[in-house]
Every structure is written in structure tokens, then in C-alpha cells.
Amino acid sequence: MTKRSIHWxxxxxxxHDNPALLAxxxxxxDVKPIFILDPWFASNARVGVNRWRFLLQxxxxxxxxxxxxxxxxxxxxxxPGEVFPELFKQWETTHLTFELDIEPYAKVRDAAVKxxxxxxxxxxxxxxxxxxxDTDKVIKANGGNPPLTYQRLQTVLSKMGAPPKPVEGPREIxxxxxxxxxxxxxxxxxxxxxxxxxxxxxxxxxxxETEGLKRxxxxxxxxxxxxxxxxxxxxxxTLAPSTTVLSPYxxxxxxxxxxxxxxxxxVYSQNKNHTQPPTSLLGQLFWREFYYVIASVSPNFxxxxxxPICTQVDWDDxxxxxxxxxxxxxxxxxxxxxxxxxxxxxxxHHLARHAVACFLTRGDLWCHWEEGMNVFEEWLLDADxxxxxxxxxxxxxxxxFHQYFRVYxxxxxxxxxxxxxxxIRKYLPQLKNFPTQYIYEPWTAPLKVQEKAGCIIGKDYxxxxxxxxxxxxxxxxxxxxxxxxxxxxSSKGITEKRKTEGSEDGTPKKKRKTGGNNSKITDFVxxxx
DNA sequence: CCTCGAGTTGCGAAC
DNA sequence: TGTTCGCAACTCGAG
Length: 529
What we know:
Blueprint: E1 3-9, H1 19-25, E2 28-37, H2 39-44, H3 49-67, E3 74-77, H4 80-91, E4 95-99, H5 104-119, E5 123-127, H6 135-141, H7 150-160, H8 181-185, H9 209-221, H10 223-228, H11 247-251, H12 257-269, H13 281-295, H14 319-326, H15 333-345, H16 350-363, H17 369-379, H18 385-395, H19 412-415, H20 422-427, H21 447-453, H22 468-500, H23 521-528
Parallel strand pairs: 1-2, 1-4, 2-3, 4-5
This protein binds a DNA duplex (15 and 15 nucleotides) through helix 16 and helix 22.
């Protein structure tokens, strides 16, 4: 039998440690590496311009790397449901390979494609390579439920032993390339997708496997830094990132988590001492695993309602506050600077995420964590469905983390690691000439000082939207109330749950409106025909 | 050499 | 992966 394969790239946009690609290549006379520009993502996932750019650069890089094998990346437009039957016929496909994906949309999509392939007599082979471990096996090892604490996850993982070693890259990829490849299957430009390159921020983190592996290599060479890494001791407001910024590359699978894991282990093994999870560098990969394992089986993981692990809180629907936060106009320079960095550069430090997420939700503005999650999803280069939802639940004290009285101060927290406010001056140039004494609390500066600095508060930079000290106190009480309710309903809920067989009160409240972001989809869909 | 006050550090408690 | 406060213990230079 002659084997003709399609390898379907979705995440896992790499040639190294890609078992599904290897399987496609093995004994095949023709391998078609494809990426489907699925319009679902344009209309349902929030993808800002910076991440579009990152993705297209990643696809370009993949195409370049495949060229070295005399192969090419085939970018196909359309929904998987439309695309595959045609491709199977056209390429006389016998095998389809792809990496397992546990996100809800991916599960449904992949199940549909699987049955489609079977109807066409195409054999489907899937592999786990996005996470360190097979999430199903982790759950099985924990007795059928996902571990809901980090400690528990660690215990389970240590029983399971080290994650699989990364597999070798392919030796050869035999691809018959069509004469019209570039016009039919070329990687699109931003303009092709109706995106404006000029809206992108500075190119600090170029997309692609090559860039990702280069970054990994650079980081691993700092052996002392790797061994001493403690996340809470890294700083949120340095002018150059204080952590690896490998997250965008892990999100798209430009860098394999397992490769990262074993490279860190290699550095550890050559040194006497190293830090331990959860704060160590390896510990960060376990956090990723933690959220993936839980998200893989949790219903409504990215929502509050209908989400059994999420505390139900009476968040306000306050558009004014939400917009102020989103646009970096809360009047708290530390918060606003972070939001500007996020919007323009697509990456902010983990602790900066803590500060702004706490501020938006339980700390100050009492806005719904889902709103914050949506903004992060749009602007972060590393926006990862599991991690984003999980971290927003953590920060809003809705799940995993419960010490809701620990509230970050939008004034004090940043000062600890940037006394002079250089980070604020960089991202909020209107405050550049403010005296250090007032830079974190510009509303306290006398008018004369504001005039001298060329920045009047309330005119050139907004007044603070809330008084932190006051709302903090109020919000802690509201949080205590939500926890009290949860406790009450969980004690009687066990018996009532059987009866109603649904969510707490049975009837879901008004539907949350979804953010805009629909303007360019029509062209996108048209193009896909 | 002692005493005093100002300033610093460290800790536990409360929110 | 919090912040603030009070309090005790300590440092240090001035008188």
C-alpha cells in the first residue's frame, strides 16, 4: 500500500519534537504539511494584530524550514469540515496526523474531522505533544479527577516519572509540490487577512520555531540564572523582561514544552543546587500543566456560570471602569503603564498580570474576570485558553486561590522594584517629567508641580477612577459575602444537586455580551471560499 | 561611658 | 507570589 499523508499543523508549529509529523513522514511517498486558516478563530477567538503577526511569522518560518527538506507548508483557507474532503480526494490521502488539542472547540472540531476521515477511508493518527504529559493519564493517575491543587499535581506527576523525551526531527519529508503552490497555498500577509501592519507594536518577540529555539538556547546558557530562578523574586516592571518570554512560543508550540523541560533538567544536572517547584523555572512548566489538566475536563472552564470550580460572585457590569482599565486610563500610573505595555507589545510580566487582574476584579473595580480574560486573550501574544481562564480565576480569587484579603496595592507593589518609576515613565510619557515623589500617586502632586512637569492631572493624565483604600475595604467585604454564600450552598447543595440536576438556581442569568472584534471577518470568510 | 531619640528591622495579627 | 499596623528589639550618632 502506498502511504500518502497530510500532517495538520494547528498548535505544535514546529519540526522538532513533533511525533505526529514523524508519523506522517514514516514510509510515506507524499507528505502534505498543512495549516488551515479556520475562520472560526477570526470570529470567535479574540486575536489582536500583534498575535496575528506572530502567527504569520511562525507560518513563514515553518515554510522556510520545510523548504530545507524540499517540502512546503500548505496554508489552506476554509473550515476543516469543507477543506478535508476535497484535500483527501485531490491528494489521494491515506493518512492524517495531528497533535492532540484539549480545548473545547478543538475537541469538537477534531472529532468531526476524524469521522469525516474515516468515511473517506483515511487513517487518523493523533499524538500528545503540546503538554508534558497526557492529561488523561494524569487524571487517571489521580483516581479519575483532575488534581485541583498544585501540590496534588506534583505528587501525581512524581508518581508518573519524568515526561517523555522529545522525539528527533524528521529525516526526510517527501512532498510533491504543486506548480501553483505559492498562489494556492502560500502564507498570507497581514494585508491578505485585512490586518493593518501599522497597528502592530515594536517587533520585540518575532514568531517562529527558529526564534523560539534561539531564545530557549540563550536562556539555557545562563546556567546560574536558571538554577536560581524564583518566580516571585523576578520583577514585573523592569524595562527588559526579567523572565524568559518563552510563553508565546509555548502557546503556539514553536518550542516544545518537553524540549524546554529536558533542557532545564540538563542545566540542573550540571549544577549542585537549583530551586524547586512551584517557584523554580521547571515549576512554571508545571503551572502550565496544572491548568491544562484541569481545563481538559472542566465544564465551562472559561466562564463563571455553570463552572463548578468557580465561586459565584456578583460582579458589577461597569463599562466605564472596564474601558478605563482596558485603555490604561485608571489614573493609577503603575496599572496604566502595564496595560499600555500589554496593548502595544503583547507581553507583560506574570506579576504585572497579577496587579492589573486584581485591580480589575476583587481589588478595585469589581468588574467580571471574564471581561479581563477577554482583553488578555486579544492582546497577549501568549494568550492560551487554559492558562488565561485559570489565571483569571486565580487572581479574582474565584478558584484555586482563596486569600481574597491579599490585595495588591496599585501604588506600593510597583514601588518595591522600581522606586524611581522608570517603567511608568517609559509607557506613560505624559508623566515622564513628574518628580519621583509623586510618580505613583500623581493626584497628590500640588498644581505647581504638575504645571512644571507639563502634565495636569485630570487633563493630560486622568484622575484616579476609584480611591483604592476605600474600595479595597468594601470589596473585601463583598468577597467575604460571596464566600459565605458558596459555603452555605455547598453544604446544602450536595443534597439539592441531585434534585435539580443543573446549576445552582437552575436558570442562567442574562447572557454576557461578547466583545466586538467582528469587522474583518466577512472578507476573511469570502477569501476562504 | 551612658542615655536618648530617631530610624530601622522583624514579626504577628487583621483585613 | 499582599498590605498595613503596632510593637519589640535593635542600631547609631549626638550630647
